[in-house]
Amino acid sequence: MTSQNPIKKIALVTGGGDCPGLNSAIRAVVQTAILEYGISVVGIPNGFKGILENQFVPLDLSNTTGIFSKGGTVLGSSNVDSPFRVPVTKDGKKSYEDHSDKCMEHFKSAGIDALIVVGGDGTQTMAHGFAKKGLKVVGIPKTIDNDLNGTELTIGFFTAVSTAVEALDKLHTTAESHHRVMVVEVMGRNAGWIALFAGLGGDADVILIPEIPFELEKVAAFLKDTHHTRKKYSIVVVAEGAKPVGGKVTVQRVIEDSPEPTRLGGIGHQVAIELENLTGRECRAIVLGHLLRGGSPVGFDRILASRFGVAAVKALMDGHYDSMVAYRNDSVELVPLETGAGKNRFVNPESLFLEGARNRGIHFGDS
Ligand code: F6P
Asked: Residue 185 pLDDT more than 80?
């Protein structure tokens, strides 16, 4: 059966911001391709940059041994390179060119029949672009932000949440000793998944997410009240994309050539300063930042990556091209690749998760 299959050699790329669990997915893809289907795998170094540079490295059972539990990606990644928009400077003038046809030639000359792309919305957009050019492509969703459309979970999310919860546990003790308000900024771009789950798991008093614009006067009133009635310290979790009612997100930097140029950050410090003024209580801010992307994947992310890796190879071998494996209703399914391409999934403010948090007395800055 395998001999009749048009796919004999697949390429694998990890694109966008890294996260824990990418190596688990790489290992699972390699194992399934070789042991179940008898086909070979090559890795593309440094995200889509490697395709532009015509670089491929053989992956096998031996050179992927020991990577399953390792954080990051042994292939490297990039969140600034797109083959569809390559910056070129001619006569001192900068413009952008589409080099995707050149990449298609690179795939052909390397004898690659299909591509598995492990990435978030930006990376899956490029994957879909190659699928439209006739390449056999399947996507695997990853991002600590958990904001990819079409899947309820992405690789890396639960590790980021675990790291944040561990940090919150530590901040509780020092906040309690000094009767302070600790404001903890977490990543997540324009979605509040990390902040929400970290705040729920880390017993935060206040959670500010992009999906619910906040009013700091209301937060301050709540903190003053809890200070009198419940406890002498408070934990406030702020998503990097959180914004005040009628206000804008806080931008840390703009990376011009990146497919998604805006990098958020800084709202935590602003919130801490304003809350100190409004409450008269001592506030401190901490930014967890890239710590959330580091370290070994938790067990759940390894298992999710394993299931996605196996399903992605199977999808290719069964001819389900231009699709993405997705976690839905407790099972792994296939969705059209364009479902995840360039589209995000946000926290529903009316969801049971939010309702449950409000039932516990957690404040979202809006009431
Ligand atoms: O998408 C993952 C993510 O970590 C976001 O949460 C964050 O906004 C962004 O990437 C940071 O990107 P960079 O690594 O370029 O600073």
From this structure: yes
Report the nearest-CA residue for atom 10 of ligand 1: 17
User: Helix or strand or coil: residue 243?
Assistant: coil
Nearest residue (CA) to ligand 1, atom 11: 263
Q: Outline which parts of the chain fall under CATH 3.40.50.460.
A: 160-292
Cα atoms in the Cβ-side hemisphere of radius 13 Å centred on 230: 11
Give the position, in ligand 1's atom list, of the atom nearest the Cα of 255.
15
**pTM score of the predicted model:** 0.97
3-state secondary structure of 242: coil
Task: Return the axis-axis angle of helices 299-317 and 157-178, rounded to nearest 10°.
Answer: 160
pLDDT at 229: 86
Expressed in angstroms and rounded, the spacing between residue 4 Cα and the centre of ligand 1 is 42
Which amino acids bring their CB within 6 angstroms of ligand 1? 17, 79, 120, 143-145, 187-189, 240, 263-264, 293
What are the start and end residues of each CATH 3.40.50.450 domain in the chain? 9-155+297-339
Mind telling me the catalytic residues?
145
Length of the chain as a residue count: 367
Indicate if the pLDDT at residue 158 is higher than 80.
yes
CATH label, 160-292, candidates 1.10.760.10, 3.40.50.460, 3.40.50.2300, 3.30.565.10: 3.40.50.460
Q: What is the Å distance from ligand 1's center to 120 Cα?
A: 11
Helices 216-229 and 267-279: crossing angle in degrees, nearest 10, is: 60
CATH 3.40.50.450 for the 9-155+297-339 domain, yes or no: yes
pLDDT tens for residues 241-300?
999 999 999 999 999 888 889 999 999 999 999 999 999 999 999 999 999 999 999 999
Q: Which of 18, 80, 144, 292 to mutate to test the pocket of ligand 1 (most atoms within 8 A of CB)?
A: 144
